[in-house]
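Continuing the batch. This is chain 6 of the set; chains 1 through 5 are on the previous pages. Same settings as before, nothing changed between runs. Recording input and output for traceability.
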Amino acid sequence: MAPALADPFNDSSALREFVINQGNGVKGLSELGLTSLPKQYIQPLEERTCMTNIVPQDSIPIIDMSNWEDPKLAKSICDAASKWGFFQIVNHDVPIHVLDNVKDATYRFFRLPAEVKNKYSKDHSSSNNVRFGTSFTPQAEKALEWKDYLSLFYVSEKEASALWPSVCREQVLDYMKKSEVVIKHLLQVLMKGLNVNEIDKTKESLLMGSMRTNLNYYPKCPNPEFTVGVGRHSDVSTLTILLQDEIGGLFVRENEGDNWIHVPPIKGSLVINVGDALQIISNGRYKSVEHRVVANGNNNRISVPIFVNPRPADMIGPLLELISSGEKPIYKQVLYSDYVKHFFRKAHDGKKTIGFVEL
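Output for chain 6:
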């Protein structure tokens, strides 16, 4: 039951009970029709998006993938991964209907009653591989983020059939399957850019041995200027493949300065970004870059990222091919699951996670 509207969440335990324990999420808060943002979501000034730091004329590269054989395409991908860490791809062979279906499925999941979604929460889910949640790491955050999500770690079709919510299972599996060809092509090109000409089974496992898909929901927000959808961070993946809807709100930090660039939604495109794992594996040649999502006062927004990762039990570090050719390693070897745990045990804090492995 929703609390009465007169300053209902002055008490943090009431907010936690409604948002987290009852499974209402920020979607439930948004639907209460609050006229002001609960104080628990008010971000410190330095974490809010300052519109004077937005560079409207700049754009991350947009790359046409229609001709894989074109050597200029490979150069464009490697340049984008090393200079920007982010790029959009169009004409990429993932059918538009597959993208539309997974967006529809995302809305279907978040329209479910709170008690149904709550079956997949940390306290109730039958598996760590299926997790409905809100914000990022609520127990570690001084200010919460205005986002709900469903996280689906892929182990096998059999497990997905048994554990993933039926309203989105088939659509997410199809999206992951159809994206795999693109992911492999991108990784082959990026490895060739490091003079690694063959991806054997061991390397394939290191680069894309596990995958996780998130369904993200950013509901309409009162006072969006005081909070964030997602705070500043870089991903811990090898690559992230992001499908965003037409609303927009994703911003990328420009070359480690204080300026931010909006990533405009392009119908049918996918946004690709380098994650920390690839920055480490490439010995810093490819860059993972800070990004954030702003809250929106007028529209609900969704996005569906596929995080392409090493396996949890893999050791990650600069590729032997790079070190044996004389490059000095700038990162140590680390167990990937330890790196991920380090990321998730704290609030979003820009690019600080990478310091965990710097030599």
